[in-house]
Amino acid sequence: MGASVSIRLVDSLVHQPEDIAEKTERSKAFHIQKAIEVYIEEYADLLITFDRLHNQTDPIISSKEMRSSLGIPNENWFTKILDRL
Q: In angstroms, rounded to a whole number, what is the distance separating the alpha carbons of residues 15 and 50?
């Protein structure tokens, strides 16, 4: 069992975890904890992204170069998807 945390939420946010909890048969606390975990993971990824973006020594390669280095054909995948529609 972890530590207890108290937060004040705007009314519109109070009801959403209740609705999700009811539909999933999990507690509000479970969903709030998962939401915070996901937020923290995404925020950490964002910080890493910004660090890499601003790193002047990190080489920038084109998507064509990246696909080539990974052995992925340099076809326009987006056009292929649109052709299927």
A: 34
Alpha-carbon gap, residue 34 to 68, rounded angstroms:
38
Rounded to two decimals, the pTM is 0.60
Over residues 51-66, mean pLDDT: 85
Distance CA 35, CA 9 (A): 14
Say whether pLDDT at 37 is over 80.
yes
Spatial separation of the C-alpha atoms in residues 21 and 28, rounded to whole Å = 5
CA dist., res. 83 & res. 81, Å (int): 5
What mean pLDDT do residues 65-71 have? 86
- Measured CA to CA, the distance from residue 44 to residue 37 in angstroms comes to 11
